[in-house]
Amino acid sequence: MKFTTDFPISKHNQPIDYDSSVLMLGSCFSQNIGDKFQYYGFDTVVNPFGVIFNPHSLWVLMEKSVSGNFTENDVCGNFSYLAHSQLDGNDSATTLLNLKTAGIWMKNQIELSSHIIVTLGTAWIYELKATGEIVANCHQQPQALFEKRLLSIEKIQEALEKMERLIKKVNPTAQIIYTLSPVRHTKDGMIENTRSKARLYEAIQQRCEKGENYYFPAYELLMDDLRDYRFYAADMLHPNATAVDYVWNRFRESVLHTNTLTTIKAVEKHRKLQDHRPKNNEAHKEQLIKSSILLQQKFPNLKLQ
User: Fold this and answer.
1) Which DSSP category does 133 fall into?
2) How far apart (Å, rounded) are the C-alpha atoms in residues 176 and 147?
């Protein structure tokens, strides 16, 4: 008896391998898959500005990073409405420095990455009433400061098209992969969450219909393949570890090159050794060092952290 509804996923025609460099941007689901990439030693950078949910804010950060155009106007005390709270500083000068540093990191990765994976989370945005600026994060400021609205499909497409154009200008050979986050944004409301996902989905599909971009169906894997609350964390909103593992395996089948399998298995063995609780700590430490050296000698492109 089967308890899932699996479906075929088309293979990427320029798959990722250990010679690839990957930049992952967007919602917290991009962090889940990014963690898998880093666990297995791929050259991967995840969200230099922290988790960013809406496509407009992603575009703004990308444009400012490439142009180097972060200024004092982008800072509000010890935080920036452009970025996640992980870039907060002790004061405005430190916060601006954090923005500029992340911008340099982002620009370098756009220039160097063979694959850029963009995961969209929501089409709901918050505008500062005082300036009309769309914020990436409200930083727990009073709700009265913001106007909440839903981006149109046309505006989402516009943001994605601008991102694609900028990426191709800086790095013409970069492959763009879109995913839609399966995480439910129930604080917006269940109907509102569905409207948001639908708009993001349609905008992504229209960009992919042009034939230059690839869509990986992370959203469908949770909603249509697994579709069971046993695959969600305790909050019933985020995929649990089992679901993330399942999505990663389907991603590996469709987006990773088959030549990565041997390396992945070798890294897995090394990670299990790392996680082992030894009786003799010194002997275990020597084993780890030896294992790491042998891995790097056999697979020199590994980026073990």
Assistant:
1) P
2) 32
Q: What's this model's pTM, rounded to 2 decimal places?
A: 0.94
pLDDT tens per residue across all 305 residues of the chain: 677 788 999 999 999 999 999 999 999 888 899 999 999 999 999 999 999 999 999 999 999 999 999 999 999 999 999 999 999 999 999 999 999 999 999 999 999 999 999 999 999 999 999 999 999 999 999 999 999 999 999 999 999 999 999 999 999 999 999 999 999 998 899 999 999 999 999 999 999 998 789 999 999 999 999 988 999 999 999 999 999 999 999 999 999 999 999 999 999 999 988 887 777 778 778 888 888 889 889 999 998 87
- 69: CB partners within 8 A, 6+ apart: 63
How big is the chain by its Cα radius of gyration, in Å? 20
Task: Report yes or no: 255 and 114 within 8 Å, Cβ to Cβ.
Answer: no
Separation between Cα atoms, residue 171 and residue 114, nearest integer Å: 9
Strand partners, 203: none
